[in-house]
């Protein structure tokens, strides 16, 4: 190793990195010690705001390879031909915990994919579950508040948790997934990923279909039991982060099959579930899955902060051939993420190398300046129209034209019965051991609720999904439902 001069950030050589400058041997430290000042000041600025949700995570790079021709469905660049490989970044996360929280906590896991395509970055920012707790973005901040810390005690609070969820019947399906074995995956490699929302695919001829994206792990699904997960939380808060890094570092890969479900506009109009409600799945019997590609992770980040902490995934990053659906949650998310990135990373977050659309044929617009601006546009015009730079709009990138009508208003999409059908179906699909673990996990959490009324309201939702499901939770909590009902009726 050849010697290299130690320098300040401005490149000036540093004479002494062991002793600060003082006025005499025993005198006070001098303000003129600019190296000391720089070190202390930089240290104070090492933290940026953590993600308001999904703060704890890990990620790796790789590629998506297409194995089936779907150009009849979409003109999106990654699907242009069988065998095409598109480079990607995938970040996994837990949702509610802070940056230092344990990987093994019971929580959904984030599954955020960034595909670096010739048409720009396409982000599919999903979870390891095909559904979500809510169907309206207006409820998201309230929901997240209840999953985090109490404003006074600063502790997780089972009353808040179940108060909100028991008043949110559409969450029953996702709550069932959360407290099932799948709420504690053994590692990031041993779980599926889902785009969760319904998206539109548009083909070169201008035809549109609705799609769901699924990523099925090729390592097989493996989960911790509640006891194993709790133990792991105590033993190693970073077990899944380590697992992913070590797997790839020792020459291994993490792999998923990419699948889609496809629904025509006519089918959407008559499907028995609202196809744009993210609390529901499209049942596989109704809309079978098709395997169309393989996702492979084979490269670790060289620097965690630069490439994973600063990674900015946004559902609004879409490319021609993939568009949003009217799913209200997805529509809300189209705003939320880039707003978070501007707050967390600054106005020029797309210039950070990991977010840079480096595969895009070009990045050409008239946004300029702001903190950390790289100046790549040099002296070119910062206004449009102009007669200088030749930058032209691309009419073929226009959104799929479709009529929209209806009365403006805060419309509820209430499907009271439907809110329990799929949760009940999922419960009935489980074998006896899975059912027992699910019930045990819910009871184990809900027994800490201090208000019986909240417990009863939550049980009511599970009961409406499946009477056996609700009854077993009531039994587990030592509640006699009949007596409680009588007491309520007075
Ligand atoms: C992260 C908002 C629903 C998956 C985030 C972040 C925000 C946010 C602000 C932090 C972004 C950042 O700082 O980089 C919302 C809102 C939602 C919503 C407002 C509903 C209206 C969902 C849903 C899913 C999801 C339904 C999955 C189906 C994720 C994932 C991340 C994330 C995976 C982490 C991305 C990463 O790894 O950087 N969300 N979210 N979110 N969200 Fe959501």
Automatic annotation (TrEMBL):
Catalytic residues, chain numbering: 54, 127
Record's keyword terms, sorted: Heme, Hydrogen peroxide, Iron, Metal-binding, Oxidoreductase, Peroxidase
Binding of heme, residues: 337
Stretches assigned to the Catalase core domain: 7-392
Catalytic activity of the protein: 2 H2O2 = O2 + 2 H2O
GO molecular function list: catalase activity; heme binding; metal ion binding
PROSITE patterns: CATALASE_1, CATALASE_2, CATALASE_3
Location of region: Disordered: 1-22
Pfam families documented for this protein: Catalase (PF00199), Catalase-rel (PF06628)
GO CC term (a single one): cytoplasm
EC numbers on record: 1.11.1.6
Single GO biological process annotation from the record: response to hydrogen peroxide
Record family assignment: Belongs to the catalase family.
Protein name: Catalase
Native source organism of the sequence: Rubritalea profundi
């Amino acid at each position: 190793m050849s010697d290299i001069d130690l320098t300040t950030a401005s490149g000036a050589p540093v004479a002494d990195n062991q002793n600060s400058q003082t006025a005499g041997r025993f005198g006070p430290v001098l303000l003129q010690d600019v190296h000391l000042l720089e070190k202390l000041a930089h240290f104070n600025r090492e933290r940026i705001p953590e993600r308001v949700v999904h703060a704890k995570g890990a990620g790796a790079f790789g590629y998506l390879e297409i194995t089936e021709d779907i150009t009849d469905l979409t003109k999106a660049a990654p699907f242009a031909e069988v065998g095409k490989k598109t480079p990607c970044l995938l970040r996994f996360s837990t949702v509610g915990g802070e940056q230092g929280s344990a990987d093994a906590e019971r929580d959904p896991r984030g599954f955020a994919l960034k595909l670096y395509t010739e048409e720009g970055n396409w982000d599919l920012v999903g979870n390891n579950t095909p559904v979500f707790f809510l169907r309206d973005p207006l409820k998201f901040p309230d929901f997240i508040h209840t999953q985090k810390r109490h404003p006074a005690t600063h502790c997780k609070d089972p009353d808040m948790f179940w108060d909100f969820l028991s008043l949110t019947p559409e969450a029953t399906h996702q709550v069932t997934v959360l407290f099932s074995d799948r709420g504690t995956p053994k590692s990031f490699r041993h779980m599926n990923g889902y785009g969760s929302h319904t998206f539109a695919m548009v083909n070169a001829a201008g035809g549109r279909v609705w799609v769901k994206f699924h990523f099925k792990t090729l390592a097989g699904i493996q989960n911790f039991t509640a006891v194993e997960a709790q133990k792991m939380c105590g033993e190693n808060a970073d077990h899944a982060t380590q697992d992913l890094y070590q797997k790839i570092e020792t020459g291994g890969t993490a792999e998923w099959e990419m699948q889609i479900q496809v629904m025509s506009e006519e089918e959407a109009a008559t499907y028995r579930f609202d196809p744009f409600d993210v609390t529901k799945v499209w049942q596989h019997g109704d809309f079978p899955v098709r395997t169309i590609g393989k996702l492979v992770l084979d490269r670790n980040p060289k620097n965690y902060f630069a490439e994973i902490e600063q990674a900015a995934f946004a559902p609004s990053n879409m490319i021609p051939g993939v568009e949003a659906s009217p799913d209200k949650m997805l529509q809300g998310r189209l705003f939320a993420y880039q707003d978070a990135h501007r707050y967390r990373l600054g106005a020029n977050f797309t210039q950070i190398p990991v977010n840079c659309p480096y595969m895009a044929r070009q990045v050409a617009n008239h946004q300029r300046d702001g903190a950390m601006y790289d100046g790549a546009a040099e002296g070119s015009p910062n206004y449009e129209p102009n007669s200088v730079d030749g930058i032209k709009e691309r009419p073929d990138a226009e959104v799929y034209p479709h009529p929209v009508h209806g009365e403006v208003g805060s419309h509820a999409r209430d499907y009271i019965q439907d809110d329990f059908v799929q949760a009940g179906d999922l419960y009935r699909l489980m074998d006896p051991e899975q059912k027992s673990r699910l019930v045990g996990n819910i009871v184990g959490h809900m027994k800490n609720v201090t208000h019986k009324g909240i417990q009863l309201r939550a049980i009511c939702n599970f009961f409406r999904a499946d009477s056996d499901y609700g009854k077993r939770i009531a039994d587990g909590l030592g509640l006699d439902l009949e007596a409680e009902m009588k007491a309520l009726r007075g």
